[in-house]
Amino acid sequence: MITGKEKFIKLILHPVKFRLFLFAKLPSAFFSGLKVQSLDTSKAVVTVPYKWFSKNPFKSTYFACLAMAAEFSTGLLAMMNTYQANPPISMLVTGLEAKYFKKATGKTSFLCEEGDSFHRTVLEAIASGEGRVLTAKSVGKNEAGEIVAEFLITWSFKVKK
Fold this sequence. Notes:
6 strands, alpha+beta, 38% helix, Thiol Ester Dehydrase, Chain A
């Protein structure tokens, strides 16, 4: 039997369905060229290229496009753990903190390895019936493996009434 998480991963890794989802629900991510490089129950890797739509006047990737990729790497893990949840769970970004270390001049890959933390937090929200928060870290690296930026994204989870 396929679990909700396995169904979610299959949907996200389907090239056509994922691109249609981005175009319909997150058009800025679609046009910025965000891609899911890998996804499993413990981690997500999302890439953002340096291209016309994502660039800034300083010949690097615009900070907001970097933030979008970082948030999406955490958001995939959040969505996976709320996908087809019973009872249904609402999720919302409630905070963001960023540190930039180096210009992003090529493809930047954001890694979030907090799948287990998202799983526990969603289960706690269901068990308690009260909202729970989780701050997840996403680290962006360039093609040389150098850290470009680090983001802390705070998520809130609550059982829908």
